[in-house]
Design brief:
This protein is mainly alpha-helical. Helices cover 72% and strands 0% of the residues. It has six helices and no strands. Helix 1 runs antiparallel to helix 2 and helix 5 packs antiparallel against helix 6. The longest helix is centred in the C-terminal third of the chain and has 34 residues. About 5% of the residues have low confidence.
């Protein structure tokens, strides 16, 4: 007699779960974000002399949070896993752990608050936009505290934070419904 085992899940009070399926989705999306970081992100970093290095992995964890709908502590885990991946390509080691951890929790809060009624159409784009801006600002403030040169860093980084946020908002909005359909998950 064969028994099938259910995947082990960490159930949240709001219905989200961080199980093997969710972690595989995160891994796939992080791989795509890593490729964007390694290509587009590194090109921008080279042009700016290493001062600017946008992180497209934010769109990957935003999509994961939208699909999985984790609770806040689970979102923190997603953010920290994402930050660990960023360490491979970053020019500022360890700063991303604060930025992505906080940003992932913010995205989870936005998803929990907004995924109902007509507003849910805009949550993917708005959540990714706000999350990316907050992550970028946290990164920028920590970087300024570490090396100084506040005016130069703000002038160099703020446009990239905004442009990356817009890019992530468009990307997340465009990919959210197809990912939900592919995974047979209600959007």
């Amino acid at each position: 007699m064969s028994q099938t085992t259910q995947p082990r899940t960490i159930a949240s009070t709001d219905g989200g779960k961080l199980d093997i399926r969710a972690l595989v989705l995160l891994a796939i999306l992080l791989a795509a974000g890593f490729i964007l970081n390694f290509t587009v992100g590194k090109a921008i970093s080279s042009i700016s002399g290493g001062l600017i290095s946008p992180e497209f992995i934010i769109s990957a964890f935003c999509l994961t949070i939208l699909v999985v709908r984790p609770n806040i502590p689970q979102a923190l885990v997603i953010g920290l896993i994402s930050a660990a991946v960023i360490q491979i390509t970053t020019t500022s080691p360890f700063v991303d752990f604060a930025a992505e951890g906080i940003a992932a929790m913010l995205m989870a809060a936005i998803v929990q608050a907004g995924m109902q009624g007509k507003a849910k159409k805009f949550v993917p784009a708005l959540g990714a936009l706000v999350t990316t801006v907050v992550s970028g600002l946290i990164f920028m403030v920590i970087k300024i505290a570490m090396i100084g040169a506040a005016q130069e860093l703000v002038a160099a980084m703020l446009p990239v934070v905004i442009l990356t946020a817009v890019f992530n908002a468009i990307l997340v909005q465009a990919l959210y419904l197809p990912i939900c359909k592919a995974l047979k998950v209600e959007a």
